[in-house]
Amino acid sequence: MSIPLCVAGLLLHEAGSLSQYTIGRTGVQYIPSCRSAGSRTRSTCSQSRRTAAILRSELSWLVDSSIAFLRALGNMCYTETMTFREFLSKMNPAEECRKYSTVLWQCPQFLFLVMGGLIIVSVMFSFFLGNRYIDNPQITLLLILALTGVLLSMAFIITRSFEQLAEANRLKTEFINIVSHQLRSPLTNLKWGLDFLMGEGAARNQQETGYFHILNENIGRMHELVNDLLTVSRVEQGTFPFQEKEFELQDVIDQVLLEFQSASQASNVDVKIEGKRVPKLYNDPSLVRHVLGNLIDNAIRYAWKDSEATSQGKRERNQLVIRLSDQGSSVRVELQDNGVGIPQEDQKYIFQKFFRSSNAVRRQTEGSGLGLFIVKSLLEKVGGQIGFKSEENKGSTFWFTLPYGTK
Amino acid sequence: MKKILFIEDEAAIHKTFSDALSKEDYEITSALDGEIGLRLAKEKKPDLILLDLVLPKMNGFEVLSALKADEATKAIPVIVLTNLEQMEDIQKAIDLGARTYLVKANYDLAEVVDMVKKAIEEA
């Protein structure tokens, strides 16, 4: 999204500067011809000079505001590191438009190419004409007006296409919200009905019990997915209920580890905590629980299974080390595992919504691909950060920071 | 015999719930919408009311405030049992006088049954 905007800003800026240069030249060259003109033409001449002056100031406004626009976009344009190849692939309208599944003329990438082309052509055309009809400021004026018209209508088209995209995005979030709410009621009915059937005192044979367990597990998965979808839509709509209070990070870690105790034992993962006690945090403890739970869950899911052999032959036991460190205004939590790691080609996508690593699919690990996306969005909302380094077959280290916060 | 009034528009939940509590010595009355629920609360004077918030005709918040406004039903403890979990809804229900607020999806049947038993013993 930011790339087309940055490109638009740059184009606008270029167009403005070029026109400014043109009108500048016209004005400058016009001055001596005014002096040498006869008394009859002198008044028309000075009139034209005034017009040129107005135009100049208008254009410098355009250039200034495009610079301001670019500056405002600055963060977005320059912090987003992107290789040239990625930039080119973004500029490939056919592919990108297919991704958005919009009509060609509504697709932003296509619009930007057309617009860019049109702006370049119209600016060159006016520059050429401006040079040629240098003696006639009225024509320059007309040209500038025409150019402004083209730019304005282009701006209108872009705004509209972005509006449509933004609206589609909003509708999607709303849709997810409604659907997940509606899904919850029948899911609860199913879950409670099954709870009752599986409850104490009911005599069943082994086969039935097996099926009941399958049902229960699948209802649990659906329930988790619906909860994740709801969280996503809340984070995106900005209605996620953050509840800040003072708490000890260590306590939350202990709670989460207790929750995952049976899972980590079942997968043979040794968990240990390193690092000293850090000061109390003032933040949302349930958010921290969510983040930690998710990362620990991943570490357990992607631990080596006993049946899996490695190329080195015998391998070490599965380990998960949680390290805490004080970083002045924030705390840094690191979770290092020696699990299967993330394939290099998947690494840049892992925080994307619904992305699932190829080894997740291979290992038949269940999940929606929402976990890390939610974790990242939540952390960013409270001023935290998250990152990782990972090597396939060696393990991953995820870290996140969380500001201590003030009451 | 202690009386429970369950105001909830999903018949499936009514059935599961009364089956789960059938071993206990409770009289369970079901109401499928807010209006009937409010009327039954006044007629039966239950010892405990379980209340959903999304209900036809009269929503749970309206039922709750009507219950708390009436001297006859004011003292009956109300457990809100719903799938709404926005902070505003929870706060609103508590402010209106709900004793407990339970998000259905977050609990097992057994947990809810336990909570209901506990609440009714205290009532």
Report on the structure:
The complex is a heterodimer of chains A (407) and B (123). With 407 residues, chain A is α+β, with helices and mostly antiparallel strands. Chain A is built from twelve helices and seven strands. Chain A folds into three domains: 170 residues, no CATH class; 66 residues, no CATH class; 159 residues, Histidine kinase-like ATPase, C-terminal domain (Heat Shock Protein 90, 2-Layer Sandwich), CATH 3.30.565.10. Helices cover 64% and strands 11% of the residues of chain A. A five-stranded mixed β-sheet of chain A has the order 2-4-5-7-6. In chain A, helix 4 crosses helix 5, helix 6 runs antiparallel to helix 7 and helix 8 crosses helix 10. The two termini of chain A are 36 Å apart. The relative contact order of chain A is 0.07. Chain B has five helices and five strands. With 123 residues, chain B is of the alpha/beta class. The two termini of chain B are 13 Å apart. In chain B, strand 4, helix 4 and strand 5 form a beta-alpha-beta unit. Chain B has a single domain, classed as Rossmann fold, CATH 3.40.50.2300. At the A-B interface, helix 6 and helix 7 of A face helix 1 and helix 5 of B.
Content of β-strand of chain A: 5-15%
Tell me the Rg of chain A in angstroms: 31 Å
Number of helices of chain A: 12
Biggest sheet record of chain A: 5 strands, mixed
The number of distinct structural domains of chain A comes to 3
